[in-house]
Amino acid sequence: MKLPFAHFITSFTDKLSPNSTRRNNKLEGLKYLFWGGFNVLLSWILYFVTYHYIISKNNVEILPFLTISGHIFSFLLSFVITFFTGFVFNNFLVFNSAKSEPIYKKLFRYFLANMGSLLINYVLLKIFVEYFMFYPTPSQILCTFIITIYSFLMQKKFTFRK
After folding, report:
1. Between 20 and 30 A from 9 (CA), which of 2, 35, 59, 103?
2. CA 120, CA 110: separation in Å to the nearest integer?
3. Separation of alpha carbons 26 and 13, rounded Å
4. 10-residue block means of pLDDT along the chain (162 residues)?
5. Total tally of structural domains belonging to the chain
6. Neighbour tally for 65: CB within 10 Å
7. DSSP E strands: which ranges in 5-152?
8. Rg of the Cα trace of the chain?
């Protein structure tokens, strides 16, 4: 499942280094940075559009007894969408583990690793917005930077381990 642009980027980054282990680790890092950055940008756009234009900064009533603040709803919606795009990017383009084992096993491990990211992001977003009174969109961007290292290590060592 290679897209023309994705194939171009992957081919380009593959040519940056020979097959040594150290260089392959750097290459994975570069690919993760590129595709992860693309997925993060998509997440920020979804968050911004949802928060400012779809729900207009209002709380969202999910059920008569469950209301979610606008910044948390926007975060959860963008997370659900970019969860799947991130898995496709990491599985097929970054870690090249498409054929190593059944996809459902990797997807489950990816889900577990992302639940950790989700929990950390949720707690940090609540703290930044509700306690420190930071603006929601920059708070979400700050959360993303904090979680990136955790996420890379979990994907490399747990989800897409070789």
Report:
1. 103
2. 15
3. 10
4. 57 52 71 92 94 94 94 93 94 79 91 93 93 91 89 88 76
5. 1
6. 6
7. 60-63, 66-68
8. 17
Neighbours of 30 (CB within 10 A): 16
Cα 85 from Cα 88, distance rounded (Å): 5
Angle, alpha carbons 42-46-52 (nearest 5°): 145
pTM, rounded to two decimals:
0.74
Residue 14 contacts residue 27 (beta carbons within 8 Å): yes
Distance, in Å, from the CA atom of 132 to the CA atom of 86, rounded to the nearest integer, reads: 30
Q: How many Å apart are CA 22 and CA 24, to the nearest integer?
A: 5
State whether residue 19 is helix, strand or coil: coil
CA-based nearest residue to 5, from 36, 27, 35 = 35
